[in-house]
């Protein structure tokens, strides 16, 4: 009887050990899952070309040698733009974007474009686009403020303004991670039957800056072009075509006469 009692005691002790081992194993598995979740999420965001901290905009875009216009090319481009004497909203957007060429970001991605947007030190290629259109008075033409490239391309598609051909002042969407998704944007500055010239924020090899970029029209990384709705005006204003005066056509405050707006 004494021997049987010892065996029962030992079996009970083994059962308790097994239960403790199961509890420990489950606890360790749960803890490991919690630790792996953020890393998995960050990896997913990076694969989509986003900064995992904010899931907005894109990572810095380095430029290949073929994408960097030479000084002679830039000089010829400037001369062509000057001789064309282009006018209209697209030309106004391009002029403001050109004035930003060479502007560098500060430490930690911080830029004036991010400060204006409300996300000072985030990846900023699309915030740069929004800032330029805002400065030109045409923010509504691209659907308002944007920092997330996926959301921005979705706006153009929703409004049936996403095309496969460029236009002056168009927003070009790029897939430079080769994953079929947009992860960078620029403004179309000029184009020919063979090439597209853009101005892009958060691009360049020396530092993250506003840079001139050039692509072949057939470049497979170009997903398409967002055609701004130049006639889109914010509440309280109306689009007015100027046929006289010095002011370009644009959104006129409803309480202002067309003559005063156009400067006739």
How do the helices and strands line up, and which of them pair or pack?
Elements: H1 2-47, H2 71-84, H3 89-99, H4 112-117, H5 125-136, H6 149-158, E1 162-163, E2 171-174, E3 184-191, E4 195-203, E5 209-216, E6 222-226, E7 237-240, E8 250-253, H7 258-262
Antiparallel strand pairs: 1-6, 2-3, 2-6, 3-4, 4-5, 7-8
Task: Count every helix, treating DSSP H or I runs of 4 or more residues as helices.
Answer: 7
How are the strands ordered across the major sheet? 1-6-2-3-4-5
Largest sheet: 6 strands, antiparallel
Poorly predicted regions = 30-57
* Number of domains as seen in the coordinates: 2
The CATH class of the largest domain turns out to be Alpha Beta
Gross morphology is globular
Order of helices and strands: HHHHHHEEEEEEEEH
3D structure, described in words:
By secondary structure, this protein is an alpha+beta fold. It has 2 domains: 1-47; 65-226, endopeptidase fold (from Nostoc punctiforme) (Alpha-Beta Complex), CATH 3.90.1720. 39% of the residues lie in helices and 17% in strands. The chain has helices at residues 2-47, 71-84, 89-99, 112-117, 125-136, 149-158, 258-262; strands at 162-163, 171-174, 184-191, 195-203, 209-216, 222-226, 237-240, 250-253. The strands form 2 sheets. Strands 1-6-2-3-4-5 form a 6-stranded antiparallel sheet. A hairpin with a 5-residue loop joins strand 4 and strand 5 (209-216). Helix 3 packs across helix 5 (125-136). The radius of gyration is 28 Å and the shape is globular. 33% of the residues are buried.
